[in-house]
Structure formats: C-alpha cells, structure tokens
Amino acid sequence: MTDWLGPNEWQAVVLSIQVSFVATALCLPIGVFIAYALARWNFRGKQILNILVHMPLILPPVVTGYLLLLTFGRHGLIGGWLEDHLGLILAFRWTGAALAAAIMAFPLLVRAVRLSIEAVDPRLEEAAETLGANRLRIFFTITLPLIRSGLIAGSILAFAKAIGEFGATITFVANIPGQTQTIPTAIYSFLQVPGGEDGAFKLVIISLGIALTALLVSEVLARKAQRRVLGLP
C-alpha cells in the first residue's frame, strides 16, 4: 500500500484513523453519561440539553468549525487558557481535528446509546435497587450489558462520522499535509489541481475499505453481544 499511495496520502490515511479513534474515545464516556441522563432522568433544562447535543447535526459544519475556532483558537476563551496553563494548542493541530470530529460525531453516538437505554425495561433496574444495589452498580451490572449492542453501533457510527468529517475540520485546523490533512481534506486538495483525480480515487477506495471494515466489525461485535445477553454460546 505504501507503493500505491504517496507519502502525503499515506500520512492522511494514518492521521484520519488516529483522529477517528481519539474522537470516538472522547465521545464515549461523555456520550454514555448524557444518553443515560436523557433517557432516565427528569431535570430542568433537559430539552435544552437535548437540543445542544444535536446542534452539530443542524448547523452547517463550517459554522461549527468557526465556533470552535472562536472558542478553542489560540486567542479564544478556552483555547487561550489551555495554551497559557497547559501548553495545549488545538487550532491547526491534529488534536484540534480530533476535537472537531468528536463534536460532529457526538450526536450520533448519544442517539444510538439513548435508544438502547430506553429499550431496557426500567423495572429491571428498579428491582436491583430494591435489593440494595446503588445506581453505579446497577448501571455496570445490568444496564451496560443490555445496551452493549447499541454502544457498539454508536461507537462505529461515531468512528465513521469522524473519519469522514470535512467542513468543521478544515475550518478549525486547515488542511496542512502531514499535520492536519485527513482523507476528506486530501481528496479535496487532489480535486483542486489538474490530474489529481487518480490520487483522489485511491483515497476514495481506502475510505470505502475502512467504512466496510468498520461495518463488518460492528456487525460481528453486535451479534456476539446479543448472544451474550440472550445467554447463547
């Protein structure tokens, strides 16, 4: 594959996979917590939280990227503090690409996990609570095993969204080869120059391969999780 792809294209593939894994890892714990809160708890501002979670799906990705630049840029409200106190720079870095991808993927993960939690009979959790189990133990011993399929599906959706993210990424971290250039931005660069169709086509094939592999892994893991819930070997 290294002979088939040039150095810049190979770097874009590796960076895309790296960004997608980090973005999914960022989404997962927060997304599960938010999904559980939306599915099980009643509190003030619940509808507002639900709207905020799904906002990245409604806003144009370029707008999301611009808001990230205003907030997490080197002179942004949070970005300036991160640079001054932690030495962490997000704008025009691969870490910023991971943040942008995580924010765009977050609603998909939350929705998949929330639907799985809502499908679990709350009486199972209530029965465990009457036996003295606390909420944390109930979640890890009852709820989490029952939503494993939805958790896998949500994670794969988040990974796929992250690896295909373009608008927010290019706005927040630009398109710097070897630093912030991912597969979508590399394809865009190829299509801007005469004769770049061949390089773009190769990256499209790579994207299809990654997507199909992710779907296959998701299907296998989801079936295994379902069999475990049903007590099948």
Largest sheet: none
Mean pLDDT: 88
Number of helices: 11
Distance between the termini: 38 Å
Number of strands: 0
Low-confidence blocks of residues: none
Order of helices and strands: HHHHHHHHHHH
Q: Any idea what the shape is?
A: globular
Radius of gyration: 20 Å
Q: Which key phrases capture this entry?
A:
single chain, 233 residues, mainly alpha
How would you briefly describe this protein structure?
The chain is mainly α and 233 residues long.
Written account of the structure:
With 233 residues, the protein is mainly alpha-helical. The chain has eleven helices and no strands. The protein has helices spanning 7-40, 46-58, 61-72, 79-86, 94-119, 122-130, 135-146, 148-163, 167-173, 183-191, 197-230. α1 runs parallel beside α5, α1 runs antiparallel to α8 (148-163) and α5 (94-119) packs antiparallel against α9 (167-173). The two termini are 38 Å apart. The model has no long low-confidence stretch (mean pLDDT 88).
What's the SSE blueprint?
Layout lengths: L6 H34 L5 H13 L2 H12 L6 H8 L7 H26 L2 H9 L4 H12 L1 H16 L3 H7 L9 H9 L5 H34 L3
Helix pairs in contact: 1-5, 1-8, 2-5, 3-9, 5-8, 5-9, 6-7, 8-11, 10-11
